[in-house]
Amino acid sequence: MCCESKGRFLLLYATQKGQAKAIAEEIWQQAGAHGFEADMHCLSEMDKYNLETEKDPVVIVISTTGTGEPPDTARKFVKKIQDKTLPPDHFAHLQYGLLGLGDSEYMFFCNGGRTVDRRLQELGAQHFYDTGLADDCVGLELVVDPWIDGLWLALKEALQLQKEKEGMNSAVDAVSSSISTAPHAVHELQLSSEIHNLKLEDEGARSSDVLSQKLDDINLVAPSRDTEPSLVHSVPPVSQSALNIPALPPEYIEVEFQDSQGENPHLSSHISEGTTFEVPVTKAVQLTREDAIKTALLLELDIADTSFEYQPGDAFCVVCPNNPSEVEELLHILGLSEKGDDVVCVKVKQGTKKKGASRPQHIPERSTIKFILTWCLEIRAIPKKAFLRALVECTSDVGEKRRLQELCSRQGASDYTSFIRDSNVCLLDLLHAFPSCKPSLSLLIEHLPKLQARSYSVSSSNLYQPGRLHFVFNVVEFPAGSSRPVSWKGVCTGWLAELVAPLLHPSKNSLDTEGESSSAGKISIFPRPNNAFHLPADPSVPFIMVGPGTGISPFIGFLQHRQKLREQHTEWEFGETWLFFGCRHQDRDYLFKQLQCFLENGTLTHLKVCFSRDTSTAEVAPPKYVQDVLRLCAKEVARVLLKERGYFYICGDKKHMADDVSDAIVDILSMEMEADKLEAMKILATLREEKRYLQDVWS
């Protein structure tokens, strides 16, 4: 089919970490097989498209970041369409379909997509296809795959309607014929289950003998003694099915090995987020006892000689490397152990079929292989199905090849979720499980995402400790499992813990511990200001803080700041302050016993603590969790929020705490106002809209 006969549509995406872009590229890639031509651009490239004059259908793929904001690449676009002077028929000519990406673990699920969708509707744009909202909590592919499948028929109908209006029906005849043959599966390669040769049949081929595979053939790959599926083993019906697998992603990166060794670029040169600051770690304190379930560390950074600024409640990001032993292991598997320090040149492959192919921004044009694997690629990322599909071509063993095909197929969707997504399997796990798989470095650059800097809440006040920044974190532990024989520490928390080992004094358990005067080394950081999670502008307004575990971190900064303000402005009126803190054991992980000092000097009005794992001999058992303590203080909580228009802050774990606290607040509002639960939920929603119920949570 020649280009002129293909139905055109505009494909726009906005991404924060690359997922929306990858999905848009998948749509672009499939478009040709369906008789369409996709004109693909990032939403930020506003000079390359014009929605005001766009006549063809528009497809938008957009993610959500932070606490419900559109991604950075969509901010200019969103600001433009939110112009209040635009008339209600501004986009009356526009027909579009939108796919939003989000995570239901967070309060404002898919809010980036919802915001754009709602505003386009307000400006008169019409849906030609229903909006899809994909949830990363359960697996984006559960919505993304069927949404893309249905897109082609919707596009065909939209273009037909458009041509009918123009009196030009003939232009979509070719599109119609390509859709009608196999509307749900024509874009996918049909995999024959002839295990011996694993031949990829032509598109659309699905002969009747595919499903009549002999059991003996199947057993060459799936021994009958194994009745339970695993990462490396499948069972019927998957093991006996013809498979719908994704099309092979086009290669677009070429890696040239240079003869000489050379210097790597400075870290700051490939950080796209803005100014980075290299600062020394001057103090480290272990806040938990050695027998605590989790190890919590407090680190102090010296920012005195920098222009780094922050407010209590802000976050900042730490630029961290991958674990050196994992990098060495990966180099060994790739056959590059002796070449880790060799310089390579990374460029776009000539003649690639990938539209708009370019070298990823996070990959230097010239650097050593070890630098790329250490500082640039998220080697622990959960592999996407497109990556699995590409790995198939690098795998020589017949059984391993078939299993990788199953895991990226539609029939193997449940296995992918169970054995890869939910098991947090990464590239190294896959390469151990499928030893005949030998990918190239270029393939890793194409498919592994950028190594993201890790975000932490500031746990100090620059007013209280000028030139110093504190933060607190638990050293994350990933236990060994069926796909991984050894336990792992978090990429960043494990690295930081090792970095500050010389400064640690495990026997001390106080903020007042004198750290070593020497530094453990320097780390690179950059600011990530929080637009809302700050102290009330009016110091007379009361507020409540709920922060169990390391969730207390930003509230230490709040209290330090409030203490200095009270000292400096004795004439001011200050509202009451409440802190609800919880941990497992009072003697093992009560992180900040100095809270009592804030209570004694009047900075903190009320301190409520609970310990979930401590046993009690009291006749009435004390509350175990912060939400239980909140309920005991129902009248006071309702008074602060409703009568005194106070603020409510939550920091900590989303799944196991923040949602329970939210439920407790709904119960409190319902009980104290003598209203039904629905009315109480509306009041809570109003508090959120007024930015008086604020969360800084993680999953």
From TrEMBL:
Signal peptide span: none
Domain Flavodoxin-like: 9-152
Required cofactor(s): FAD; FMN
One of the protein's GO biological processes: folic acid metabolic process
UniProt EC number: 1.16.1.8
Chief localization: cytoplasm
GO MF annotation: an example: [methionine synthase] reductase (NADPH) activity
Catalysed reactions listed for this entry: 2 cob(II)alamin + A + 2 H2O + 2 H(+) = 2 aquacob(III)alamin + AH2
A single GO cellular-component term on record: cytosol
Residues annotated as domain FAD-binding FR-type: 274-536
Record Gene3D superfamilies: 3.40.50.360, NADPH-cytochrome p450 Reductase, Chain A, domain 3 (1.20.990.10), Nucleotide-binding domain of ferredoxin-NADP reductase (FNR) module (3.40.50.80), Translation factors (2.40.30.10)
Claim: Kinase is one of the keywords in the record: no
Protein's UniProt keywords contain Methyltransferase: no
Subcellular location: Cytoplasm
Keywords for the protein's UniProt record, in alphabetical order: Amino-acid biosynthesis, Cytoplasm, FAD, Flavoprotein, FMN, Methionine biosynthesis, NADP, Oxidoreductase, Phosphoprotein, S-adenosyl-L-methionine
PANTHER family named in the record: METHIONINE SYNTHASE REDUCTASE (PTHR19384:SF84), NITRIC OXIDE SYNTHASE-RELATED (PTHR19384)
Oligomeric and partner information: Forms a multiprotein complex with MMACHC, MMADHC and MTR.
Protein name, UniProt field: Methionine synthase reductase
Organism in which the protein naturally occurs: Sylvia atricapilla
Lineage of the species this protein comes from: Eukaryota, Metazoa, Chordata, Craniata, Vertebrata
